[in-house]
TrEMBL record:
Similarity comment: Belongs to the class-III pyridoxal-phosphate-dependent aminotransferase family. ArgD subfamily.
UniProt gene name: argD
Record keywords: Amino-acid biosynthesis, Aminotransferase, Arginine biosynthesis, Cytoplasm, Lysine biosynthesis, Pyridoxal phosphate, Transferase
Chemical reaction(s) catalysed: N(2)-acetyl-L-ornithine + 2-oxoglutarate = N-acetyl-L-glutamate 5-semialdehyde + L-glutamate; N-succinyl-(2S,6S)-2,6-diaminopimelate + 2-oxoglutarate = (S)-2-succinylamino-6-oxoheptanedioate + L-glutamate
Lineage, opening ranks: Bacteria, Pseudomonadati, Pseudomonadota, Gammaproteobacteria, Enterobacterales
Name used for this protein in its record: Acetylornithine/succinyldiaminopimelate aminotransferase
Gene Ontology molecular function, alphabetical: identical protein binding; N2-acetyl-L-ornithine:2-oxoglutarate 5-aminotransferase activity; pyridoxal phosphate binding; succinyldiaminopimelate transaminase activity
Positions contributing to N(2)-acetyl-L-ornithine binding: R143, T282
Cofactor annotation: pyridoxal 5'-phosphate
């Protein structure tokens, strides 16, 4: 029995499918933007569970909500509806362009639903051959077979046999490239308003407006994957709200449950009407536990205090990074919006992001990368000024040690 053995990082290699390369320490406790590992070492957390923990670890209001709901109703299945799911759906509708909601459990599942809906809508409302999906190089949409195929990093989709068909990829932020491939057989254009995993690259204003116009011209749906950029991460509830460009379908996950797994696909009445009973589904999607926590997380995040605080924290992070760069000169660019920030390493440090992450962890700082050459910052939206300052001091130390190694 595994309970009788000491659990350590080696246990991972013995018992887990070898698809991840987790850090060599095991976190056991978190509070706000601090984490502790098995040895009691403390870390400042600038990763937030990869843009999930918008309110930090174990936010007391979320913990209480979860406890209370856990004594009432955990799961009921889609044979019934439930009050928390209906309440959360209404909140999302009130806060966005949407009129209909589908709940799932992960970003990939929300995207899978979005792509199926787009195909179904185009086939039933237009023509059976209107099935082409236009997507972008470096895009990331999840790990189901459809979502890795729409994603723009071929390595994730290779080696699993024949891929879903009729998907084309073009360079991000290149309107001419979209113009060259879009036609009346296009069913949807899919994009992240700010590419996250692919390098923290915001769409330009001109690009998003141009893509919207091209979609309208060719009666193609515009799908925004806001799994990473959504739920306050950029300082608005959804990133599309900075651009004034409305999608037809939007997917949201990660921060939606503040760390409890839940995702949603949002769309309009007219598009939702392409689906009928039995056309799609999930056992756990919209369960009362996740939706109750989602309601409370959304209520806290979708307030001027939290959203305006994101901008302030963005400025603090950028200023601290600029100071570090004045000392060490290792960055060529800072980009992103709100608390989705990428620090791009200079040409001579290409491929070195992982080494800096390891050194940061040694100094007690949890950071992310986006690709091999970009440090990525996705802390809690309510991280304190002291924690930002402390984390940046640790980053400074890590870079200094790393450069002198
Ligand atoms: C933009 C985007 N879409 C989809 C996903 C997949 O979400 P999940 O891992 O919850 O399936 C991610 C995860 O990083 C993401 O960043």
């Amino acid at each position: 029995m595994i309970e009788n053995k000491a659990i350590n990082r080696n246990t991972y290699d013995q018992v887990m499918l070898p698809i991840y390369a987790p850090a060599n320490f095991i976190p056991v406790r978190g509070q706000g933007s601090r984490l502790w590992d098995q040895q009691g070492k403390e870390y400042v957390d600038f990763a937030g569970g990869i843009a999930v923990l918008a309110l930090g670890h174990c936010h007391p209001v979320l913990v209480n909500t979860l406890k209370q709901q856990s004594e009432k109703l955990w799961h009921i299945s889609n044979i019934f509806t439930n009050e928390p799911a209906l309440t959360l759906a209404q909140k999302l509708i009130d806060a966005t362009f949407a009129q209909k909601v589908f709940f799932a459990n992960s970003g990939a599942e929300a995207n899978e639903a979005a792509f199926k809906l787009a195909r179904r809508y185009a086939i039933t409302r237009h023509h059976p051959t209107k099935t082409r999906i236009i997507a972008f190089h470096q895009a990331f949409h999840g790990r189901t077979f459809f979502t890795v195929s729409v994603g723009g990093q071929p390595k994730y989709a290779e080696g699993f046999g024949p891929n879903p068909a009729d998907i084309v990829h073009v360079p991000f932020n290149d309107l001419d490239a979209v113009r060259a491939v879009i036609d009346d057989r296009t069913c949807a254009v899919v994009l992240e308003p700010i590419q996250g995993e692919g390098g923290v690259t915001p769409a330009t204003m001109e690009f998003l407006h141009g893509v919207r116009e091209l979609c309208d011209k060719h009666q193609a749906l515009l799908i925004f994957d806001e799994v990473q950029s959504g739920v306050g991460r950029t300082g608005k509830l959804y990133a599309y709200q900075h651009y004034g460009v409305q999608p037809d379908i939007l997917t949201t996950a990660k921060a939606l449950g503040g760390g409890f797994p839940i995702s949603a696909m949002l769309t309009t009445d007219a598009i939702a009407a392409a689906m009928e009973t039995g056309a799609h589904g999930t056992t756990y999607g919209g369960n009362p536990l996740a939706c109750t926590v989602g309601c409370v997380a959304l209520d806290i995040i979708n307030t001027p205090e939290v959203l305006m605080g994101v901008e302030k924290r963005h400025d603090m992070v950028i200023q601290a990074l600029e100071k570090i760069d004045q000392k060490y000169g290792i960055f060529q660019e800072f980009r992103g919006k709100g608390l989705l920030i990428g620090a791009v390493l200079k040409a001579e440090y290409q491929g070195k992001a992982k080494e800096i992450l390891q050194q940061a962890a040694e100094q007690g700082l949890i950071l992310l990368s986006a690709g091999d050459s970009i440090l990525r910052f996705t802390p809690s939206l309510i991280i304190s000024e002291d924690e930002i300052t402390e984390g940046m001091m640790r980053l400074d130390m890590a870079i200094s040690r790393w450069l002198n190694k």
